[in-house]
Amino acid sequence: MDPESDVTDAATDESATVVRRYYNALDEHDYGALEEVLSPAFSQRRPDRTFEDRETFVAFMREKRPNPDTSHDLASIVVGDDCVAVRGRVTDDGTTLFEFADFFELEDDRIDRLETYSR
């Protein structure tokens, strides 16, 4: 087995794990874990708003999230070089509210940037 492929596989697994931690933190309302998985320079662009820093994003999710009782049902995770793409749906009590595609950029095993698209 090629040693470089081991490194790539480990990096791929770690990137997917970081992204799964992000969704778990949101779904479980674990805002400390959410803050830990995001870099201090975190930003998110999504159709309805943009968050320019980690603190604003975490505060929004904690205090102003329109429907905090939703869950993220992940259909696929694709990992590239410092980038992870996720396709899934947001559900509330088993009912699909919308589908999404998230594109994460990671740095030092933390989420640095997130682009979200939904329909």
UniProtKB/TrEMBL annotation:
Where in the numbering of this chain does the SnoaL-like domain appear?
A: 19-113
Protein name per its UniProtKB record: Ketosteroid isomerase-like protein
Q: Does the keyword Lipoprotein apply?
A: no
Q: Supply the alphabetized keyword list.
A: Isomerase
Tell me one GO molecular function of this protein. isomerase activity
Name the InterPro entries for this protein: NTF2-like_dom_sf (IPR032710), SnoaL-like (IPR037401)
Pfam family, any one: SnoaL_2
